[in-house]
Amino acid sequence: MLSKIKETHFDGRLASTFARPVLDLCHCTSGGESSSHSSTGRVGVDTGCGLPEEMTLEQKEALNRFRECLQDTGLLREKDTDQDLLRFLKARSFDVPKAKAMYEAMLDWRREFGVDTIKETFNFPERKAIKALYPHFHHKTDKAGRPIYIERLGQLNLDEILKVTTVERMLLYHIQEWEVLIDRKFTACSKQSGKTISQSLTILDLKGVTMKHMNKQVRHFIQKISRLDQDYYPEYLGKMFIVNSPTAFKAMWPMIKPWLDKRTQKKIEVHGSNFTSKLLEFVDSENLPEFLGGSCRCLEGCENSDAGPWSNSFLQVLYEHAHAEAYQ
At what angle do helices 7-19 and 216-232 cross, to 10 degrees? Predict the structure, then answer.
């Protein structure tokens, strides 16, 4: 249970978890490494649900071996579907032993930090203060039905944040938000779109970012977050746009990029101030906040509205809109 973990010991234990290599420790036969390309099959095309639209024969065989391997070793969770298993396979280029090692490391991590119950056991009363110092929020969906996640990093003030909370509690909060996204928000988006949604579109707004925002402490925090996301929540990112990229960030990007695996790097686009037309290729204007070039102006501010299929107020607005159209 997460509540039983003493925070005085958390930093060292968490650090060791992040440093834990995802090694090939299992004895399942890999049958050779397979990527999304095959000399005998079709190329897989990623969709909004995170699954290849078509899988090659080699990929299907790898999925079957992976599932059987997890079942035989008693590791497979009842709730995990083929789609869940594919996330680990894709993260490890369909190498079954490496995917199995990654999956097992994820299970160990979840048990160690009580992640299965973190939504109920972790209390974060400083959330409102943190969001004011570090604006980050989900806001509606893109054209593929994926939830949109936005961060305004130019307003990040880590020094003030650390007066309110600790890095360890921030990481726990980050994990809790992941669990809410997976269990609640993806489910709501799937129901609205009529298809499985298990990836998101991320927009990082760097307007106002200077070198002071990228000091050693901030870089260390971002590195921890990136490692956690890649090791324990693989392949949930569908697309990322980094916008309003200043010269300072462009200087830092070569240092940040190696923290990300190659698959993640390919999903990221970096733009300067002329980015709106690109965002509108993926997001309808009414779903994009005005400060990003869209037409959405939530009454309480887009960063505070929690607008999306997961919000009761959002569903009520959709119902009223549909009801009004029916009587026009």
Answer: 70
Instruction: Give the chain's length.
Output: 328
CB 270 within 8 A of CB 245: yes
pTM of this structure: 0.80
What is the DSSP secondary-structure string of 229-253?
HHHHSTT-EEEEEEES--HHHHHHH
b/e for 58-91, b at 16 or more Cβ within 10 A? Answer: bbeebbebbbebbeeeeebeeeeeeebbbbbbbb
Chunked mean pLDDT (size 10), the chain, 328 residues: 39 42 40 39 38 76 96 96 94 96 98 95 96 95 98 90 94 96 95 94 92 76 87 95 88 80 87 96 98 95 94 54 47
Strands 136-141, 147-152: pairing is: antiparallel
Residue 106 CB neighbours (<10 A): 18
Residue type, 45: V
Are 292 and 205 in contact by the 8 Å Cβ rule? The answer is yes
Using DSSP, state whether 146 is helix, strand or coil: coil
Question: Is 65:92 a contact under the CB 8 Å cutoff?
Answer: no
Tell me the H-state helices in the chain.
7-19, 57-72, 82-91, 96-112, 118-121, 127-133, 158-164, 167-180, 186-193, 216-232, 247-256, 262-266, 276-282, 302-305, 312-326
> Which phi and psi angles does 50 have, rounded to 5°?
90, 0
DSSP state of 32: S
Tokens of 141: 């969906």
Q: What was the pLDDT predicted at 92?
A: 94
- Residues whose CB falls within 8 Å of the CB of residue 242, separated by 6 or more in sequence, listed in order: 204, 206, 249, 268, 269, 270, 271
The per-residue pLDDT for 244 is 96
